[in-house]
Amino acid sequence: METPRYQTLVFFSFCSLLINAFASLHEVAPVSEKLGVARHQQWRVEGNPVLSQICKSTDYVDLCISSIKPLIHGKTDTVSVLEQAIKVAINNAKTAVAVATKISTIPNTPPDMKSIASDCKDSYEDALDNYQKALEALGIKDVGTMNSMLSAAITDSSDCDDRLSGNKSPLLDFDSKMKQMTSNCLAIVSLVKM
Questions:
Q1: pLDDT (tens digit per residue) in 38-81
Q2: Is residue 109 part of a domain?
Q3: Three-class SS of residue 165?
Q4: Residue 22 confidence (pLDDT)
Q5: 64-123, pLDDT tens digit by residue?
Q6: At what angle do helices 78-105 and 61-68 cross, to 10 degrees?
Q7: How many other C-beta atoms lie within 10 A of the C-beta of residue 91?
Q8: Can you list the pairs that 125-133 forms with residues at least 24 positions away whose Cβ atoms lie under 8 Å?
């Protein structure tokens, strides 16, 4: 007759085998990536080595590739990749505005969270304006204005983060993603030739 201790040992051995099998079949992200630390690996986007090279210069390579690759059709150069990166950030900010608006208007939202969500909505709208100005500056390759406007967008996101300190909110995810996307945009700006 098997003892409970033997059954436990068999169970954990089986689980260990499953975990090892899964890990060998799939690339398991290191703990540093799960914590949001950027990784610097050799990335290769099949059929688009230019996008690979550009995204490799960013802090959030996987986000760069996954958000821009579906939008690049035809010509791929630094300017077209940057344009798409800014447009993706604009779309993220628009969604953040909508979510913040919704949170601030839900009847059972606590008054302090309504106020914070309303302030975040204003910050996201400011970020949208800054992204738009960066996009306009891209058209004339005004690197200084692009850097200023994108840096301001990070500040806008940080303002919301500061207000949310100690609170749980879906807006924190938007803030984090906005900062990462904007960081990538700034890295790509540094590659734009005057």
A1: 444 444 555 678 898 999 999 999 999 999 999 988 788 999 99
A2: yes
A3: coil
A4: 33
A5: 999 999 998 878 899 999 999 999 999 999 999 999 999 999 999 899 999 999 999 999
A6: 90
A7: 14
A8: 125/97, 126/152, 126/156, 127/93, 127/152, 127/153, 127/156, 127/157, 127/178, 128/90, 128/93, 128/94, 128/97, 130/156, 131/86, 131/89, 131/90, 131/93, 132/90
The tokens for 166 are 């100690």
Residue 102 DSSP label:
H
| 46 and 29 within one domain | no
- Report if residue 194 sits inside a domain: no
- Could you list the residue range(s) of the whole structural domain that residue 12 is in? 4-33
Considering the domain architecture, whether residues 29 and 119 belong to the same structural domain is answered as: no
Whether residues 27 and 45 share a domain: the answer is no
- Burial 148-187, CB ≥16 within 10 A → b, else e: ebbebbbebbebbbebbeeeebebeebbebbbbbbbbbbb
Task: Please indicate, yes or no, whether residues 45 and 135 belong to a single structural domain of this protein.
Answer: yes
Same domain, 88 and 13: no
Same domain, 117 and 175: yes
- Listed in sequence order, the residues at least 6 apart from 83 whose beta carbon sits closer than 8 Å to its beta carbon are 135, 138
Q: For the whole model, what pTM was predicted?
A: 0.74
CATH at residue 61: 1.20.140.40
